[in-house]
TrEMBL record:
<feature type="site" description="Transition state stabilizer">
    <location>
        <position position="155"/>
    </location>
</feature>
<feature type="binding site">
    <location>
        <begin position="156"/>
        <end position="157"/>
    </location>
    <ligand>
        <name>substrate</name>
    </ligand>
</feature>
<dbReference type="GO" id="GO:0004619">
    <property type="term" value="F:phosphoglycerate mutase activity"/>
</dbReference>
<dbReference type="InterPro" id="IPR005952">
    <property type="entry name" value="Phosphogly_mut1"/>
</dbReference>
<dbReference type="InterPro" id="IPR029033">
    <property type="entry name" value="His_PPase_superfam"/>
</dbReference>
<feature type="active site" description="Tele-phosphohistidine intermediate">
    <location>
        <position position="9"/>
    </location>
</feature>
<comment type="similarity">
    <text>Belongs to the phosphoglycerate mutase family. BPG-dependent PGAM subfamily.</text>
</comment>
<feature type="binding site">
    <location>
        <begin position="85"/>
        <end position="88"/>
    </location>
    <ligand>
        <name>substrate</name>
    </ligand>
</feature>
<comment type="function">
    <text>Catalyzes the interconversion of 2-phosphoglycerate and 3-phosphoglycerate.</text>
</comment>
<keyword id="KW-0324">Glycolysis</keyword>
<feature type="binding site">
    <location>
        <position position="96"/>
    </location>
    <ligand>
        <name>substrate</name>
    </ligand>
</feature>
<comment type="pathway">
    <text>Carbohydrate degradation; glycolysis; pyruvate from D-glyceraldehyde 3-phosphate: step 3/5.</text>
</comment>
<keyword id="KW-0413">Isomerase</keyword>
<feature type="binding site">
    <location>
        <begin position="21"/>
        <end position="22"/>
    </location>
    <ligand>
        <name>substrate</name>
    </ligand>
</feature>
<dbReference type="InterPro" id="IPR001345">
    <property type="entry name" value="PG/BPGM_mutase_AS"/>
</dbReference>
<feature type="active site" description="Proton donor/acceptor">
    <location>
        <position position="85"/>
    </location>
</feature>
<dbReference type="GO" id="GO:0006094">
    <property type="term" value="P:gluconeogenesis"/>
</dbReference>
Length: 201
């Protein structure tokens, strides 16, 4: 049996400021560092063979805190931009509430939550999923097939895209999927990588 654990990074400076972050490379807040520690505490007793991570600062810092807290800082770690947050294009750096005032809630919800509609100049969730799933199949599936326990630290939308793929969510269902900062999803997989059990921590 293999184990896959997906973790969203802790609260970032942009999360706190309520702005569209996307590819902006921002740091964790003190609360975000605490969330990483709290998530690691929930994973105490888990042993990971390898870890995969976005190459963005907020995800890298979350992974570093978690592995140190777990006493597993020496495991192989792989950083790749394929796991980075969805690119929000022209919305990046804009305050979310102000954007709603300018464009309306319905339009902003469509940009943020829909599967196929991209924000102006940015990526749709579908496009994000294409790169995330390609990397998952190429890099993460092989150790899982060998029965390894794998930790993945990434972002709200890159993880929404991966969870949609893993759990066979419809485009309608994924609109309502919210992953909190520091949130962890655990999958127990059989030898064919079918999900035997899944749960949030």
């Amino acid at each position: 049996m293999s184990l896959l654990v997906l973790v969203r990074h802790g609260q970032s400076v942009s999360n706190l400021q309520n702005v569209f972050t996307g590819s902006l490379d921002v740091a964790l807040t003190p609360k975000g560092e605490e969330e990483a520690q709290e998530t690691a505490a929930k994973l105490r007793g888990f042993h990971f063979d390898t870890a995969f991570c976005s190459d963005m600062l907020r995800a890298r810092r979350t992974l570093d805190i978690m592995l140190r807290q777990l006493g597993q800082a020496d495991i192989p770690t792989h950083y790749n931009a394929a796991l980075n947050e969805r690119y929000y294009g022209d919305l990046q750096g804009l305050n979310k509430a102000a954007t709603v005032q300018q464009y309306g809630q319905e339009q902003v919800d469509q940009w943020r939550r829909s599967y196929d509609v991209a924000p102006p100049g940015g990526e749709s969730l579908h496009q994000t999923q294409d790169r995330v799933v390609a990397y998952y199949e190429q890099a993460i599936v092989p150790p899982l097939r060998h029965g390894q326990h794998v930790l993945v630290v990434a972002h709200g939308n890159s993880l929404r895209a991966l969870r949609m793929y893993l759990e066979h969510f419809s485009a309608e269902h994924v609109k309502g999927l919210e992953i909190p900062t520091g949130g962890a999803r655990v999958y127990e997989l059989d030898s064919a990588l079918h999900i035997k059990e899944m749960r949030d921590l």
